[in-house]
Specification:
Layout (H helix, E strand, L loop, with lengths): L1 H25 L10 H11 L16 E4 L2 E4 L6 E4 L2 E7 L2 E4 L2 E5 L5 E4 L2 E3 L9
């Protein structure tokens, strides 16, 4: 019985010592990973590097804008005038260059010529 207790005690001490040694081998050595780990370190660094920064694109409003056919009210004319669609060139945020325009009534009996000039944008003006 005494031998048995001694044998079990010795086995327990040896197993505890070998367990500590086995766990010590699973730790990474200081300064790097495993011997083949440098390859994995380079792979991780190349796949996780930060994205290069690019400047934000500059968004400019278009230089020319299309104004579709529309009906407008003009003082001194009975009814509405049809102003044909045309292109307008942007001069600033609140000014565009409009080409010469000819407005006609729905019956076609009255025409009014509007000279080319700088005007407010379509959504800010009351006349063609």
């Amino acid at each position: 019985m005494r031998w048995r207790v001694m044998l079990i005690g010795t086995a327990m001490i040896l197993s505890a010592g070998s367990l500590h040694a086995a766990l010590g081998q699973t730790r990474t050595p200081p300064g790097g990973t495993t011997p083949g780990g440098a390859m994995f370190d380079r792979l991780r660094q190349s796949t996780t590097r930060p994205m290069p920064e690019t400047p934000a694109p500059i968004v400019r409003p278009p230089d020319m804008s299309w104004v579709p056919d529309r009906f407008v009210l003009v003082p001194g004319v009975d009814g509405q005038l049809l102003v044909p669609g045309h292109w307008e060139r942007r001069l600033s945020d609140h000014e565009v260059y409009a080409p010469p325009l000819t407005g006609r009534t729905l019956q076609g009996d009255t025409t009014i010529n509007f000279p080319a000039r700088a005007r407010p944008p379509v959504n800010e003006r009351q006349f063609p």
